[in-house]
Amino acid sequence: MIYFVFLMLMCFIMGLVAVASNPAPYFAAFGLVMSAAVGCGLLASHGVSFLSLVLFLIYLGGMLVVFVYSAALTAEPHPESWLDWSVLINVFMYALGVSVAAGYFCGGWSMMSWLGVDESNGLSLWRGDLIGTSLMYSSGVVLLILAGWVLLLTLFVVLELIRGLSRGALRVV
């Protein structure tokens, strides 16, 4: 199980590098979907299956629609592909940065700390992810409303930036 989680973590990092290194939004969409799917798989492997399913459905239902709409507004006639030199240099630099950071920070980690929610709780009547979901809606309602407000503000900022050639912050001079 540890090797499977390690493989999923590597796929997650590869998806994030794919999003960060490619300036064309068409090719970065694959990295976003891969990162979301692998991140939810990581949560499910740790015993948080309900929350990972909710996160995956909300992400694909909401944020990916905004991303596709933004990509449609910024259509490029000749987008850069994965084999362009600028994209390959960005991939190499991001991968090198992640490798250096992993080598620096991984010294104190133990393989036994990768336990799931159900394995660390012992014999319990309630699952850990269901308790967390109920606490999120009862005690964390202020942070939940704040997160919704930030997402709405982000939507308006992105749509204002890519509004068109005649108005908005990004235009051809």
Structure at a glance:
The chain has helices spanning 2-21, 25-45, 49-73, 85-105, 117-121, 128-138, 141-161. The protein is mainly alpha-helical and 173 residues long.
Summing up helix and strand content along with how strands pair, one would put the structural category as mainly alpha
Mean pLDDT, to the nearest integer, reads 76
Share of residues in strands: under 5%
The domain count comes to 2
The main β sheet shows up as:
none
How many strands in all? 0
Name the helicity range: over 70%
State the distance separating the first and last CA atoms: 54 Å
Q: How many distinct helices?
A: 7
What order do the SSEs take from the amino end to the carboxyl end, as H and E? Answer: HHHHHHH
Radius of gyration of CA atoms, rounded to a whole number: 20 Å
Taking pLDDT < 50 over at least 5 consecutive residues as the criterion, the unreliable ranges are: none
Describe the structure.
It is a single chain. The chain has 173 residues and is mainly α. The chain has two domains: 1-118; 126-166. The protein is built from seven helices and no strands. Helix 1 crosses helix 4 (85-105) and helix 2 packs antiparallel against helix 3. The longest helix has 25 residues, at 49-73. The protein has helices at 2-21, 25-45, 49-73, 85-105, 117-121, 128-138, 141-161. Helices cover 72% and strands 0% of the residues. One of its GO terms (molecular function) is NADH dehydrogenase (ubiquinone) activity. It is a multi-pass membrane protein. It is found in: Mitochondrion membrane.
